[in-house]
UniProtKB/TrEMBL annotation:
Top-level class of the enzyme under EC nomenclature: oxidoreductase
A cellular component term, taken from the record's GO annotations: mitochondrion
Protein name listed in UniProt: NADH-cytochrome b5 reductase
Origin species: Punica granatum (Pomegranate)
EC number: 1.6.2.2
Length: 328
C-alpha cells in the first residue's frame, strides 16, 4: 500500500495542499509519513548537475545541533542512505525515496543541495574511483525520516544510470548540505525564475518555502522551458501550487509543441521575459538554472571557479544587473 501511495506521489497530485494553510495534521501510509502541508515531499529532489556552484559546506553549530532536532546529513562525512522505493515520473525521469532515522531531519536550508557519490571503477593503485554529482531534494526540509530525489536518467549519465540500477534496500552515499542562495522570507518583493528541464529543482524548493509561509508576500514568476510537453517535470504539481496562492505565476514554453499545446513555443525570448518576469529593480531577483546552452543564452555561464561570473545574454540586454541575478 505504501508503494502504491508513493507512485501516486510520482504523478504529482498533491490533493490536500491547501490544508497546509489551515494547520492540518500529517497523514501516513505504510512506512511513509507525508505531511499534507509539505507538498515538497510529493515530488522529491531533482538532479541539477548545473547547480553546482562554488559550494560552501554548511557546518552545523554544535550547540544548536544538540538543542534542536537530530540532523541526518554531515557536511564532512559520507553517510549511507537506504533506498525505500522508486516510481516513474516521465519517460526519462524517476522518483527515489531514501529513508533515515524517523526522529531526524535531513538538515537542508533553502536553497541548498546535497552531494551523492557512487563507485566507478578503480584507479591505478586499485582503489575505488567515484562519480560525484549534486542533487537538490525538494521534499519538505522539515520532513523527518526521508527525502525524495527526482532524477532524469540520461543514457550516458554515470550517476543517473547508477540511480536507475538501484533496488529498494540499496544505499547511496550522501554528504552535505551545500548552501546555494540563502533565501529568507520577503527578501525581495518579486522573484523571477527561469528554469530549463531539471533546473526546476531549486526553484521549486524556494517556491514551496514561500507558499507555505502565509507571512511571506513575495511574488514569484516562473518561466519553465522544456523540449516537449511530456518533458515538463511535475506540471500537475506546479499547476496546483499556482492555483493555491495568487502570488505564483507560471509560464511554460517548449521546443516541440503538440497540436493542443497552449503555452509558449521555442527558447525563452525577450518577449517572454518582458511579459513573464518582474522588471529590473532593487526589489527584484532573477534566478536561473538549466543546461549550459540555456544558461549561456539567458544569463551567461558562471566563471570557471564556479562563482557567479559576469552577467551576459538576454537578462543583461533587458537591463538587469549582476546584483539582480543569481545563477544556480
Amino acid at each position: 500500500m505504501a508503494a502504491t501511495f508513493f507512485r501516486r506521489l510520482a504523478e504529482a497530485t498533491p490533493l490536500a495542499f491547501s490544508r497546509a494553510y489551515r494547520g492540518q495534521s500529517s497523514s501516513s501510509s505504510g512506512g511513509f509519513r507525508i505531511p499534507y502541508g509539505a507538498i515538497a515531499a510529493v515530488s522529491g529532489g531533482i538532479s541539477c548537475f548545473y547547480c553546482f556552484s562554488s559550494p560552501n559546506l554548511v557546518h552545523l553549530d554544535q550547540s544548536n545541533q544538540e538543542a534542536g532536532p537530530k540532523i541526518a546529513l554531515n557536511p564532512d562525512k559520507w553517510i549511507e542512505f537506504k533506498l525505500q522505493d522508486t516510481a516513474r515520473v516521465s519517460h526519462n525521469a524517476q522518483l527515489f525515496r531514501f529513508s533515515f532515522d524517523s526522529d531526524a531531519k535531513l538538515g537542508l536550508d533553502i536553497a541548498s543541495c546535497i552531494l551523492t557519490r557512487a563507485p566507478y571503477g578503480e584507479n591505478a593503485e586499485g582503489k575505488p574511483k567515484y562519480v560525484i554529482r549534486p542533487y537538490t531534494p525538494i521534499s519538505d526540509p522539515d520532513a523527518k525520516g526521508y527525502f525524495d530525489l527526482l532524477i532524469k536518467v540520461y543514457p550516458e549519465g554515470k550517476m543517473s544510470q547508477h540511480f536507475a540500477s538501484l533496488k529498494p534496500g540499496d544505499v547511496v552515499e550522501v554528504k552535505g548540505p551545500i548552501e546555494k542562495l540563502r533565501y529568507s522570507p520577503n527578501m525581495k518583493k518579486h522573484i523571477g525564475m527561469i528554469a530549463g528541464g531539471t533546473g526546476i529543482t531549486p526553484m521549486l524548493q524556494i517556491i514551496e518555502a514561500i507558499l507555505k509561509n502565509l507571512d511571506d508576500n513575495t511574488q514569484v514568476s516562473l518561466i519553465y522551458a522544456n523540449v516537449s510537453p511530456d518533458d515538463i517535470l511535475l506540471k500537475q504539481k506546479l499547476d496546483i501550487l499556482a492555483a493555491s496562492r495568487p502570488n505564483l505565476k507560471i509560464f511554460y514554453t517548449v521546443d516541440n509543441p503538440t497540436k493542443n499545446w497552449k503555452g509558449g513555443v521555442g527558447y525563452v525570448s525577450k518577449d517572454m521575459a518582458l511579459k513573464g518576469l518582474p522588471g529590473p529593480s532593487d526589489d527584484t531577483l532573477i534566478l536561473v538554472c538549466g543546461p549550459p546552452g540555456m544558461m549561456h543564452h539567458i544569463s551567461g555561464d558562471k566563471a570557471k571557479d564556479r562563482s557567479q561570473g559576469e552577467l551576459r545574454g538576454l537578462l543583461k540586454d533587458l537591463g538587469y544587473t549582476e546584483q539582480m541575478v543569481y545563477k544556480f
